[in-house]
Amino acid sequence: MSDAAGRIIDLYRRHADAWTAARGTALLERAWIDRFAEMLPRMAAVLDIGCGSGDPIARYLAGGGHLITGVDSSPEMISIFRTNLPGETAQVGDMRSLKLDRRYGGLIAWDSLFHLAPSDQRMIFSIFRDHAEPEAPLLFTSGPAFGEVIGTLEGEPLYHASLDPDEYRMLLDRNGFDVVAQVAEDPDCGGRTVWLARQRYA
User: Fold this and answer.
1) How many domains does the chain have?
2) What is the pLDDT of residues 7-36, one digit of tens each?
3) Looking at the whole model, is its pTM more than 0.70?
4) Stretch 126-139: mean pLDDT, rounded?
5) Residue 4: what pLDDT?
6) pLDDT in tens, 64-121
7) HEC string of the chain?
8) Where are the coiled-coil regions (predicted)?
9) pLDDT digits (tens, 9 = 90+) for 107-120
10) Three-point CA angle 179, 182, 188, nearest 5°
C-alpha cells in the first residue's frame, strides 16, 4: 500500500514529542502487561522492541524490579526514553536487523510490529527467537486479519499491517513459541488484537 511503510521511521522521528504527548501515561493495557509480568522470572531482563518513550509500559515493568532494554528506530524516541528511565538501557535500532547477541527473560513488541510490511513481519519471528531465553514470554499486538490499513499521525499517513492469525500461529510455532493467549480486537484494551506466547524450554 503505497510507500507509507517506508516512511514510518521518519514519521516517528519528526513527531516523537507529539506522539509521546498523545500517548500519555495511562496504562490502558495493564491487564496484558500484568499477565506478561507474571510469567517473568524475578528481576528479569526484558527487551522492549519499539519502546517509544518508555512510558508507561517500560516504566511499569522497571517499577516491578525488571531490567529493561529499550530499542527504537527513532533516535528522538530513545532520547525521551533515556530521560524518562535514566537507569535503564536504551539504544537506537531497527527491529528488522536487530542482533544484540544476548537473550532476554521476556520480549515485548507492543504497537510496533504492526508498523512493518507483511514480508518484514514474517522475518521478525526468528529475531524474537534469537533474543528469547527458554520459557521467555513474548507479548505483541497485530491486526485481526491479513491486510494493510493507513491511520494518521499528526495528519500524516501512518502505516499498519497484519498477517492472518493462522500465519502468526505458524510463525510462532516454527520459532519455538507456544501461544498462551490471544484476543482479537480486545474491547478492554482499546480494540487491540493481542498475542501472548512463551518460548519453549530447549
Assistant:
1) 1
2) 899 999 999 999 999 999 999 999 999 999
3) yes
4) 98
5) 81
6) 999 999 999 999 999 999 999 999 999 999 999 999 999 999 999 999 999 999 999 9
7) CCCHHHHHHHHHHHCHHHHHHHHCCCCCCHHHHHHHHHCCCCCCEEEEECCCCCCCHHHHHHHCCCEEEEEECCHHHHHHHHHHCCCCEEEECCHHHCCCCCCECEEEECCCHHHCCHHHHHHHHHHHHHCECCCCEEEEEECCCCEEEEEEECCEEEEEEECCHHHHHHHHHHCCEEEEEEEEEEHHHCCEEEEEEEECCC
8) none
9) 999 999 999 999 99
10) 150
Residue 144 structural domain? 4-199
**Amino acid code (one letter) for 64:** G
Beta bridge partners of 89: 69
- Which residues face 72 on adjacent strands? 92
Residue whose grid cell is 500500500: 1
Q: CATH number of the domain that 145 lies in?
A: 3.40.50.150
Q: Say which amino acid occupies 121.
A: Q
Mean pLDDT of the chain: 95
pLDDT of residue 202: 65
